[in-house]
Design goal:
The protein has four helices and seven strands; from the N terminus they run H-E-H-H-E-E-E-E-E-E-H. The protein has 148 residues and is an alpha+beta fold. The chain has two domains: 53 residues, no CATH class; 71 residues, PH-domain like (Roll), CATH 2.30.29. Strands 1-2-3-4 form a four-stranded antiparallel β-sheet, with helices on one face. A three-stranded antiparallel β-sheet has the order 5-6-7, covered by helices on one side. A hairpin with a 3-residue loop joins strand 2 and strand 3. Helix 2 crosses helix 3. The longest helix is centred in the N-terminal third of the chain and has 25 residues. It is elongated. The protein starts with a helix and ends in a 6-residue tail after the last helix. 9% of the residues are buried. The mean pLDDT is 78. This is PH domain-containing protein. Keywords: Membrane, Transmembrane, Transmembrane helix. InterPro entries: CFP-6_PH. Pfam families: bPH_6.
Length: 148
């Protein structure tokens, strides 16, 4: 049985590029993690903490990578949120609504959330595409009337 060619090539919405303030926050987190480790180690023993710098930086980058999904895929049967270590698949049948953070004004909203049948809400990560387009694409797939 041949598979549906549209299912093999989903609509992929890529993550936004790292903004300057996110890069600054990454640097602040790395410095803060290093300062905490330095403080803990120097209170208990003396020695150079320079060898711990690469591992502290790696840890900070790894944690930030885990926290943010890398892309959103709109397949025929499900919405897929992919991150570095986890893939979350949400069948469209489980989605009852997609809403912005400002009720009735999707064009003013800055983020989207998906309401599931079991009462949970899932945040949709921001993408390079405009929020209104992402809302329309998901609403179209779940059969919800787009709101202005």
């Amino acid at each position: 049985m041949a598979s549906d060619p549209r299912e093999e090539r989903p609509r992929v919405l890529l993550r936004q590029e790292v903004r300057r303030w996110e890069g600054v926050m990454l640097a602040v987190l790395v410095v803060a993690a290093f300062a905490v480790v330095w403080w803990v180690v120097t209170r208990h023993r003396s020695g150079s903490l320079l060898p711990m710098l690469p591992s502290t930086a790696f840890f900070a980058v790894f944690v930030l990578t885990l926290l943010r999904p890398k892309r959103v895929e709109l397949r025929d049967t499900e919405l897929v949120l992919r991150s570095a270590v986890r893939t979350r698949r949400i069948p469209y049948e489980e989605i009852i609504a997609v809403r912005g953070d400002i009720p009735s004004r999707i064009d003013w909203s800055t983020r989207l959330s998906i309401e599931l049948r079991d009462g949970r809400s899932v945040a949709v990560p921001s993408t390079r595409e405009p929020l209104t387009l992402v809302h329309e694409l998901i609403a179209e797939r779940i059969g919800q009337q787009p709101t202005g």
